[in-house]
């Protein structure tokens, strides 16, 4: 436990030294929310056709919590893990008989710490600046954030394990982030997308994270099917990561 705690602190400091990760996790979701606030305000659509009848900012605040989570899973962790592979750090961990559980715990602790910091910053600024409503169900939101962070941690580990270099991981991660943002609930509302774009969004993990957080936030209850989908993605990516990172003799 002591080893995991020390390693977690080191991993957190290393991750926060990556400017791209800091921008995409802490700054860009807030900036996007402020831009949307100036364009749409927070008045609900009178016909309820878009945003599920909620105000645009009440709709997008939980969605952008999903963007915070996706930033770590698509950019932060893949770059970090790929860099470790490039520089032989993982091999040195194995040679030093560093417990695998300590390494995994450190990565998860880092992901949760940054997710909590980014989400709290986003929600507080949205609440103080634009009066965004608090969630109807805090436990449901926490469950969505927890499942989403675990899932995208597994996605990030998988990408870091299979992408050849840290530079490649960063480029592909940024591309995937913008793609998911646009079709998975962080850009135009799903009701405004074509059938093809809706199907693409549904196939990507971010949409499931967004809905799992949005539904309890807006009073629709815990979305258990979405949480189960996230657990399935988590299990699949974790298994593939284990195969990709398995020591080769």
Automatic annotation (TrEMBL):
Annotated GO CC locations: ATP-binding cassette (ABC) transporter complex
InterPro entries: ABC-2_transporter, ABC2_TM, ABC_2_transport
Domain ABC-2 type transporter transmembrane stretches: 6-213
Organism the protein comes from: Prauserella flavalba
Membrane topology, record value: Multi-pass membrane protein
A GO molecular-function descriptor: ABC-type transporter activity
Record protein name field: ABC-2 type transporter transmembrane domain-containing protein
Subcellular location(s) per record: Membrane
Keywords: Antibiotic resistance, Membrane, Transmembrane, Transmembrane helix
């Amino acid at each position: 436990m002591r080893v995991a705690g020390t390693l977690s602190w080191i991993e957190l400091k290393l991750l926060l030294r990556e400017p791209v990760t800091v921008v995409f996790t802490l700054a860009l979701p807030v900036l996007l929310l402020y831009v949307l606030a100036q364009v749409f305000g927070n008045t609900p659509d009178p016909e309820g056709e878009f945003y599920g009848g909620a105000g645009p900012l009440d709709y997008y605040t939980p969605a952008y919590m999903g963007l915070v989570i996706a930033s770590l899973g698509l950019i932060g962790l893949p770059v970090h893990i790929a860099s470790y592979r490039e520089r032989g750090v993982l091999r040195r961990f194995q040679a030093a008989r560093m417990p695998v559980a300590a390494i995994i715990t450190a990565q998860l602790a880092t992901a949760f710490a940054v997710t909590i910091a980014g989400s709290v910053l986003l929600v507080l600024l949205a609440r103080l600046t634009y009066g965004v409503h608090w969630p109807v169900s805090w436990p449901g939101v926490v469950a969505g954030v927890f499942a989403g962070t675990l899932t995208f941690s597994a996605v990030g580990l998988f990408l870091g394990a299979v992408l050849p270099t840290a530079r490649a991981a960063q480029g592909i991660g940024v591309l995937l982030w913008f793609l998911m943002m646009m079709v998975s609930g962080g850009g135009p509302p799903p009701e405004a997308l074509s059938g093809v774009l809706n199907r693409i969004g549904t196939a990507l993990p971010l949409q499931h994270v967004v809905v799992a957080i949005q539904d309890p936030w807006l009073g629709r209850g815990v979305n258990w099917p979405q949480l189960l989908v996230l657990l399935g993605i988590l299990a699949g990516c974790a298994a593939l990561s284990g195969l990709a990172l398995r020591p080769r003799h």
